[in-house]
Amino acid sequence: MSVIPETNPELLSESENRETDRYNIKDQQVIIAFTDSDIPYNQKPYGLKNSNYPHQENPVSKISLSRLDSLTKFYENSMKTDRNDRNNFIKKVYFLVATQLSITISFVGIILGFQVIKENIRQTSYIALGTFISAFIISLITICCIKPARKYPWNYVLLFSFTILITYTIGYISAYFDSIAVLSASFTTLGIVFSLAIYVHFSKKDFRVCTGITISIITGMIFFGLSMTFAYVSVVSSVIGFAVVIIFSVFIVYDIQLICGGRYDALNYDDYVIGAIVLYIDIIALFLYMLRLLMGKQ
C-alpha cells in the first residue's frame, strides 16, 4: 500500500510565489520593450497604407486586375448580346407584320380589282361574321395563353390563321366601299404607322410619354388632313375623327415601344408572335376607322 507524501504548505507557497514573480518580470520586460519602441503603431483606416510601415500591403491591391477586366468584358459582351437579340426581335416582328399586311392588301386588292368577286363577297355576311369571331378567339388564345404563343410551330399556326381570318373580314368590309376611299385609308394608316415606328425606334432609350403623344398628334394631324381632302364630312365629325385617330396613334406608339424595348416595359424575345398580332390589330383598327370616316354619309 503506497503512502502519499505530505507536502509542506509553506514550501509550496514559496515556490508558487517565485513562479509568479518570474512571470510578472517577463511581462514587464515585454511591455517596456513594446513601449520603448522607436516606431509607434498607428492604425490607419482600412485600405490606406501606413507610411511608418513601408512593407505594409494595401488590402485593395489584393484585388485581381485580370478578374476585374474579365468582369468588365463580360458585362460589355452581355450588353452587346442583349442589343443584338433585341434588334433581331424587332426585325422578326416587323417582318411578320409586313407579311400580314401584304396578305391583307393583296386580298383586298383582288376584291376591288374584279367586280364579280366584289359582288360575291358581299353575299357572304355569315362567313365574314364567323371569321371575325374565330379571329377574336384566336387572338385571345394567343395573348392570354403564353405557352402556345411561344412554342414553335404552333405560334406561327395561330398567327397566320388569325391573319387569314381577319383578311377575309377586311375584304368583306372593303367590298362595300369605293376603291379611292380604301386607298386613301390605306395611305393614311400606313403613313401614321411608319412615322410613329421611326420615332419610337430612334428614341427608345429616351422615350417619353408626353413626347410620344405630341408626335402622335402632329403625325395624325398631317395625314388626317391629307385624307380629309377625299371626304365630305361635317366639322363635328372631323373633330371627333381626329380625336379617335390620336387615340389609335397613342396605342400604336405604346405597342411599338413594347416591341423596341429600351424602357421598363418590353416584350420578351419569345413573344414575337404576340407583338406582331398586337401591332397588326392596331393597324387594322385604325384602317377601318379611317375607311368609315372617309366615306362620310355613305
From TrEMBL:
Name of a matching Pfam family: Bax1-I
Topology relative to the membrane: Multi-pass membrane protein
Subcellular location(s) per record: Membrane
Keyword presence, Membrane: yes
Keywords on record: Membrane, Transmembrane, Transmembrane helix
Keyword DNA-binding part of the UniProt annotation: no
Transmembrane segments: 93-114, 126-146, 153-174, 180-202, 209-233, 239-260, 272-291
InterPro entries cross-referenced by the UniProt entry: Bax_inhibitor_1-related
Family: Belongs to the BI1 family.
Protein name: Uncharacterized protein
